[in-house]
Amino acid sequence: MQQVDSALPFRLIYSLGEHPYLGYLIEPHVVQLNGNGSLSLTYKRVFSNTVEEYASSLSTDDLEIIGLLDEIEQTNIIKRYHKKAIRPADYFSLHFDQKIFQFIRPKIEQRLLKVLAKLADKPLYLMSKKDGYPAEKQINMATEPASVLFHFRRNETETRYFPTLKYCGHRMEFMFKDAEVIVQEQAWLLLEGTLYHFDQPLDGKKLSPFLNKRYISVPRSTEKKYFETFVGNLIERHHVYAEGFEIKTLKEEATPILTIRGAEDQQPQIELSFQYGEYHFPPSVERPVTVHLQHDEAADAYTFTRIKRSVKWEQKQEAILAELGLQTKDRLFGSFDVAPPSNSRHAVSTLEWISTHIEQLKELGFKIEQQTGSKKFYMGRASLDLSVEEQNDWFDLKAFVTFGSYKIPFIQLRDHILNRVQEFKLPNGEIAIIPEAWFAQYEHLFHFSTDKDGLKLSRMHVGILQEISEHTIVSFQRKLEKLHSFEEIEQVPPPEQFKGQLRPYQQAGYNWFQFLQQYRFGGILADDMGLGKTVQTIALLQRQKENRQTGESAIPSLLILPTSLLYNWQKEAARFAPKLRVLIHTGYARTKDSFAFSHFDLIITTYGIARSDEGLFSKFFFDYIILDESQHIKNPSSKSFKAIKNFKSKHRLALSGTPIENSVADLWTQMHFTNPGLLGSYRYFQEEFVIPIEKKKDEDRAQRLQAMIKPFVLRRTKNQVATELPSKTEQIIYCPMNDKQLKLYDKTKSAYRNVLLDGPAPGEHNQLTLLQGLMKLRQLANHPQMVEEDYADGSGKFDTVLEMLESVHAEDSKILIFSQFVKHLDIFRQHFDKRNVKYAYLDGGTKDREAAVNQFKNDSSTRIFLISIKAGGVGLNLTEADYVFILDPWWNPAVEQQAIDRSHRIGQKRNVFIYRFISKDSVEEKIVALQNRKKKLSSALITTEESFVKSLTQEDLSVLLM
Fold this sequence. Notes:
This protein is of the alpha/beta class. The protein has six domains: about 10-140, no CATH class; about 145-245, no CATH class; about 250-370, no CATH class; about 380-480, no CATH class; about 485-720, Rossmann fold; about 730-960, Rossmann fold (3-Layer(aba) Sandwich). Helices cover about 35% and strands about 25% of the residues. It is built from 30 helices and 43 strands. A seven-stranded parallel sheet has the order 33-34-32-35-36-31-37. Strands 16, 17, 18, 21, 22 and 23 form a six-stranded mixed sheet that branches. A hairpin with a 2-residue loop joins strand 25 and strand 26 (about 405-410). Helix 13 packs across helix 14 and helix 29 (about 925-935) runs antiparallel to helix 30. It is flat and about 120 Å long.
């Protein structure tokens, strides 16, 4: 073999040759051309990585064929199936055997079949067996497929078997002609210089014995087994001519049959079969013919019956079942299962699916059968008749379930519903299937029913009735609609001595308060920050004062709030309701006698004082108890919750922009405060809602919880109601880390990533270590000085923030800068102090919050307010600011929104610009992406955020650290 000069004429050819171990292969070669255009003796074997210099003369098909042939070249095969480097001669002599050949050869033939399909107009030659010259003799490719007919001739002593071949209508003589089967899997036959393929899949092994033999003889002693195995299989797949036994063809109209099968202790399954005459078959796997053998020993006769099956028709029946909600479980045996629902909120059992679709299936021609010897199931729909009668403080429910001719009191299904037992025994012994949807839809109906022998619900569980009202006739329906559509609730005039004008949505909230009061419900006002929850509540308190008859003793209300909001509430009460007598119950000199409360209309105290003075407050009966920022009692084991839940009042309200701050569990304490018993016990709430919603992402449970709490929660967003607010522009600023910062970041990330990849199985300790790692990475993304005090090489984000501050040119513009890290704020403080830049500052340790706020609001030279996001995220009205900088992403995006709402709230006259600073290629980018992926679920409840840190899975940690 010599080098072929690509500058001179050459031709790419394909050469068929027999490898001594691997069988027939095809190789691509370039061959130099002689002056007359014929092939010279100079040639070169080419591969994908050596063909480039000849590529200008090659087609796309040629390049693809060469790539396929690379894969079956002996060197590549050895590399794939032998781990160590070895010479081909040593591999084949020392390691290769028949077992390896039988494993490798089918894979080689798969590639050869792809190549042969592309060689129709390509030059193909036979390789010389002597010297390996690739173009010894040209091979023609048959333009039409050949056909095969198998013959059987049975006589008194034997059965002879042989094939005949035809090409273009003429019989081919192929026996004793040195023919070769070069591909076995789907036979290709090389005969007298021509390659033939066949009009149907043909195993080459069925031809090979006859290349040098006229027939195969099967003696009478073994013919029965031979007929049962080989002959029947051949008749199914090929044309067969027989003498001495009969081959009949049967074509019958088929019937699709669905059979219910299942052991006593197993979930029943559906099996599909097709009946052709007396024969039953599972769904075909592309087999248009099935053969059955009958042997009449007395007559010494064999009969093969070919059943022609309508494969397309059978596939259509399967498609119909798929459209109706079934999916293949085991196609070989015709086993089907109910497909996982895509749009439905509930899973459906096999029997429920049958019961639901039985009439439709019969109309489509399906026959329904039950396996004999097993339980007998009722096949039909279950329907529920339910009506509600309203009493003073509860609802009586009358309910019956109909299964065919049986009408069963719904209360008899109580234990089945609560224990999720789907099978219900009817009086005639048949088993009825309770619809899966009923377990989710009605379990709370039974759980909260106060009557074990009937169905009776407390008025506060009106949300459960609303959820099932599509099945009921509820006399309370009009009131329910009012409760859900607060805009339609009766208009209540504002208090006469209320100094201010309620906006339309605030008036609607005020009306909603009156409605809750009328029907003795508690409620949570969960409006967005900045929409005036304080103002609406003050209007309510002023109305309570004015509604008292002249001379009637005052019944004060109690307002409990965080210390940081005392100043704001005191100022707002004086502004909007100056006639309201307010007692600030704080400080060492506060009263120790609850009788003193009776001289006031409103007692304002803090959560800390409420805990300390539990004995004092618990002795007094208040008109309203109101919790501001009610998420402060989210922990049911906290002293605040334990104390406050024992306080007594006529009415209860909770105010919070984020009632679900970290977990769905936060909701239970606030609802237990406003409407005790609404959500059951805390343990029940955890098992029925928190765990399914947060751990299992159960959207059905989330929707059901939302239905229960919806009547008692009023939430409006600024996008919905505060259309008069100026626009706000939000933008993410991506900050590249500098080289030193990036190097330190990557080093730290690698260390914690190794813990994740190489450490023990994830557990509480391991996860804590990884969360610590995430905290350190977030700090490094901000400024490495937060982690290493002696670090002095700057930060990309820090520089970007300073540049943005410089770009805010307007002298009257003011900027809020939020960070969750006090250390981060300290770095900016040091910078501003060095350059004599005036700023206000507020974090959890700031003792005089009012002074910091007043400095920013009233001092025109103080344009910057550095705020810890936890300390300043609530209770501040900073509409003087028109720029908000969020220095680092918080796990909970609702907390970021609270920070933004310090500026973008009622009273703001200017456009507000919000900038979030994210370090490029850092964990911060992944936090933002993970926030977006995880916040869908809880938006179905009240806020847009579920517990982020608590729900971090090992997969999430992997994403954050990779």
